[in-house]
Amino acid sequence: MRIKTIDNYNELSEQAADIVAIEVQTKKNTVLGLPTGSTPLGMYACLVKMYKKNEIDFKNVITFNLDEYIGLPPDHPQSYNYYMHSNFFDHVNVKKSNIHIPHCKDQDPILICREYEQNIKRAGGIDLQILGIGTNGHIGFNEPDEYLYTETHLVELTEETIEANSRFFKSRDEVPLQAVTMGVGSIMGAAKIILLASGESKAEAVKEMLSGKVTTRVPASFLQLHRDVTVLVDIEAASLL
Ligand code: F6R
Known about the structure:
Elements: E1 2-6, H1 9-26, E2 31-34, H2 41-52, E3 62-65, E4 67-69, H3 80-87, E5 99-100, H4 109-122, E6 128-131, E7 153-156, H5 159-165, E8 178-181, H6 184-188, E9 192-197, H7 203-210, E10 229-234
Parallel strand pairs: 1-10, 2-3, 2-6, 3-5, 6-9, 9-10
Antiparallel strand pairs: 4-8, 7-8
């Protein structure tokens, strides 16, 4: 695991975008695993800027999002589908047919999860997975628990995650209780992983992730077992290291 402490959020975002750009320039049909949330917003903004300056071409890039809420229509402003389009896809040239975001409207979530996992395999696996980290150490929506799932699966969100995400909704009651997420095995299957963490609220989770103990109580700690992980942290998120 490489740990890079970076002065501030803007630089962290630029460095993350540079890693994505190198990957895409090296392999035109790169398969990217993408996160949502506050942390990667700066990285997406940098990638959009690079695209507008003709520095990066997403024409053959394939994307798989980490997760999506159940119960929100794709055009709901808090759905991850909406987030991805408004912050990234609508401003670059990723082909619609190459975008994958798990969505379960009326379909059986189990089938959707199975199909999602097969699509990742069919695409040849993820080349570069980008992650954020929850204050409780979650990655995707793989929440701390007695056990973790390997593949894409349906998940009941924890109180802590519902509370953390309620800042994006009008009230806490509107936060969906379930989501579909790639599993820890789907994430660990990526050839390369970068994890971004910014702000003091992430300091404890970052410390636990890197503490040396691999435990299902801190899902991000499993990344210690991966051979190519870069953790980009700003000074606040690194403050307990
Ligand atoms: C979102 C995701 C989550 C977030 C995490 C941190 O797709 O996978 O694991 O990365 O909750 O979210 P922010 O960046 O909002 O603090």
